[in-house]
Amino acid sequence: RGSVQLGCRAVGAEAMTVPDVGAERERGDATALARCMQAIRAAWPDEARGSRRVLLSVRGATSYGAMLRALDALRETEPGACEADPDAPGCLFPDAVLGVQR
Fold first, then answer.
1. Rounded CA separation 91/72 (Å)
2. pTM (two decimals)
3. Three-class DSSP labels, the chain
4. Pairing mode, if any, of strands 11-12 and 97-98?
5. What is the pLDDT of residues 38-53, one digit of tens each?
């Protein structure tokens, strides 16, 4: 257990996986987050197979819109990617939730 580290190839202590690059680039942040989830699925295929849930943990002043974009990016690479096949490459973690790590 742990947090995905910057670069999305290792797990360790709590860290910011995708750095906040500012409000003008929030859409880019969501794209980077989706790429990170794809990298995780590729790096750990056995562990990722059948995994549908991931926890999004935010810190500080994060806008509601940014949280929704992040949850969407965690779920699928494009709208509807999980509908036909939950194991399709574009279906990431369809049961993504917002929570607090303890």
1. 11
2. 0.74
3. CCEECCCCCCEECCCCCCCCCCHHHHHHHHHHHHHHHHHHHHHCHHHHCCCCCCEECCCCCCCHHHHHHHHHHHHECCCCHHHHCCCCCCECCCCCEECCCC
4. unpaired
5. 888 888 888 888 888 8
